[in-house]
């Protein structure tokens, strides 16, 4: 697969990853290399990755705990302190090897340490490969509120080595697939139709689908790097999806919902709202609900929790002037942004999702 240029960053795939990284190390006089991992990528990915690095520059490994609950400023402070203790300077390089938590947090740490050091992202989950790999969004959560603190800044390189997916559990693979399904809904029938029989998808299909998903997101981001218009379409399903994810994170009695699992619910709700407000075909909404729930199962959301989830919408990053802005679908591949949705329609959407 050809490498992809995205603004001032390059995305490389599989065998080209290590050649590109080693050339980058040769061209730049980095003082030290810091590799950020969690306990999972330390065990499963780092041995493969570090064996391919060709450099005489000193390498230090920094490990943080995995999980969305650790994507916060406290973890950043720990990494910043470790960088200081290990004498990192402005010519240091940070390489983030992990899923979205690692690449988001590691990118933010790099962008803010000594007002910015170079960094490289090595996404190791399907979600991070197709979502966090493009666009330069870095950041952390504020309590249970998703991605409230951060900056937009591109890494020098993104290295997508799909071999790392072999170590992922099924639920993590499904979580990543949710973002690819979103790309299909907002882009058009050609890509969307490749997912209509999810039972037939295999790991062999993934390389091509990942590549196409990265191209889709890159094309959107290049036209609107700071999310003033078109890039908002990438948030389809995320307004309510993030609120649901945050709500479930806030209550230890609730089952754990991965990002993609929450976004799947958010997309079903957004399809219903789209039908009600902008004319998205009802039969398409019903078909999407069936497809998603057959593959992902059904989460029982208590009616008593609707108000608490809706209250979290006020923290959504797309909001402005006190308005909660939704991305809706007029048809597959045709989005309408900055839509104001009455609360009663949101409640109706939850009731629609609850029907089995």
TrEMBL record:
It is an enzyme of class 4 (lyase). Residues 176-319 form the 3-dehydroquinate synthase C-terminal domain. Keywords: Cobalt, Lyase, Metal-binding, NAD, Nucleotide-binding, Zinc. Its cofactor is Zn(2+); Co(2+); NAD(+). PANTHER family: 3-DEHYDROQUINATE SYNTHASE. Catalyzes the conversion of 3-deoxy-D-arabino-heptulosonate 7-phosphate (DAHP) to dehydroquinate (DHQ). This is 3-dehydroquinate synthase. It comes from Algibacter mikhailovii.
